[in-house]
Design goal:
4 strands; 4 helices
């Protein structure tokens, strides 16, 4: 588990694979502990906002495809096949708490740090 902290916002945790996914999307190497310094926050906020928007579009397409598959399965009487599957949470939902913390930290002039929980 990775805990994200800033004096400007409430802390939150992510599993290692989810944190790795976020860092990979940002083209950053993942390691813990780590820090985003105050001078890095403006550019990071811009990156996160753009990434969030593109991720929302991708997630919306995936959700539409899932809804269509569910409707087909239901029409064919095999809805139980879908109930046993795991469906991943989209990247856009993973980015929201990170972006919120970065925005608050930037406004307060505080860094964002992360560590193993």
């Amino acid at each position: 588990m990775i805990r994200f902290l800033s004096k400007a916002a409430a802390s939150f945790v992510m599993t290692d694979p989810v944190a790795e996914q976020v860092f990979m999307a940002l083209n950053q190497e993942f390691h813990a502990p780590g820090i985003w310094t105050v001078d890095r926050l403006p550019a990071l906020q811009t990156e996160l906002e753009a990434l969030l928007q593109s991720s929302k579009d991708q997630d919306a397409r995936a959700e539409r495809a899932l809804a269509q598959a569910t409707e087909r399965a239901q029409a064919e009487g095999r809805l139980d096949d879908l109930s046993s599957q795991e469906f991943p949470v989209g990247l856009s939902r993973r980015l929201v708490p990170v972006l919120q913390m970065v925005r608050l930290a930037r406004a307060e002039g505080e860094p964002v740090v992360w560590e193993r929980a």
